[in-house]
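Ticket closed. Logging final result for Proline--tRNA ligase.
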Amino acid sequence: MRLSRYFMPILKENPKEAEIVSHRLMLRTGMIRQQSQGIYSWLPLGKRVLDKVNKIIREEQNRSGAIELLMPTLQTAELWQESGRYDAYGKEMLRIKDRQDRPMLYGPTNEEMITDIFRSYVKSYKDLPLNLYHIQLKFRDEIRPRFGTMRSREFMMKDAYSFDLTQEGAVIAYNKMFTAYLRTFDRLGLRAIPMRADTGPIGGELSHEFIILADTGESEVFCHKDFVNFDIPGEDTNFDDAAGLKGIFDKWTSVYAATSEMHDEAAFNAIPEGERLSARGIEVGHIFYFGTKYSEPMGAKVQGPDGKEHAVHMGSYGIGPTRLVPAIIEASHDENGIIWPASVAPFDVVVINMKSGDQACDDACETVYAALSKAGKDVLLDDRDDRAGTKFATADLIGLPVQIIVGPRSIAGGEVEVKDRKTGARETMTVEAAIKRLA
Ligand code: ATP
Ligand code: MG
Ligand code: MG
Ligand code: MG
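Final structure:
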């Protein structure tokens, strides 16, 4: 992508309304635009990051055996009356009437709808286990939307729903998602800690929130320091091995971790003082096992091996992609801007032309741009007619992992500079060597 033809509306000034660094940087880099309170457009640069986050989420959901579909954002009130949540959900639910005066709502979550899909098709235990997910917009009329897309009213969620004949089966499904989540957050460059959590309006018995430690987080959390060093399950994890998955779950729940709602002061104080971590955190994912809470009232039943009808045991599993993007920035930035982990960077590399219009610089930039693009890299070429200093500042601000700097002096000797955004380390090398390094 040539920056001169791209749409990346960088702001010169720090936006006053932004209270936390991720919000400020997302506005400054032109990743998002607020359209009305708590409702955002994702501009091209932001959309690229969001797509990369969703790609990783999708790959790990698929790896664990979950199957993707897509449900609508608008739902009928009827479905929610069946589960009893239409009245219970309260003011967070945006209620709408269609032209026939039928009560509708913009879905804040999809347990009812997926249960309706399930009951319409699945009749036998032989078709279980089943886990269906989608990545879709949700609406919750948050009382205090803030921090940009961290807590917005319209936001994206990956929500998965598992169906099993028995509680034992549902626990295996839970452990699969638990493991998939550890892998997902790790690939996003984050250390997320699973914490025992309250089940809230989703209801149920077993629940973990996945929390990123950050000073700007809205949750108060307590955990053992050991979490920082726990191994992440590998790519070769066998999701059909129930015992192996239980081993992962047991390990990751073997030491204390809880949000303030579930906090047990005595258990926490039993940890030696130097190993206690009392911090703030951002909830980026949440998983629940809730048994037959929806299947029972909504009649989602299958025939078991005993020939009888059984209400299925369900779980639901959410991740917030539009919250993850700012969470990644909270975890990875410096005074000059964002530092994207390579896995979610909007482009892999920026080629900075220090002197657009200078023939040697232009030619070298085109050579590098063409070669890296051909090698399948996402390359941003800063070919704007602007001062070198402005281009350097932009490159640091938008935080792509690598910068290739092409200047008139070094290119006369056939050389360019390669800068690592994270460490700031610079290396001078030939154009060919730079291409080889990054391709
Ligand atoms: P919170 O405690 O922050 O209000 P929640 O517990 O209500 O979140 P869940 O119902 O557990 O949220 O939804 C699953 C995931 O969806 C959350 O872990 C979070 O990543 C994301 N999410 C929920 N609400 C929002 C929001 N208002 N803006 C952005 N992401 C959200
Ligand atoms: Mg909430
Ligand atoms: Mg919560
Ligand atoms: Mg939650």
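The chain has a mean pLDDT of 96. No further action required.
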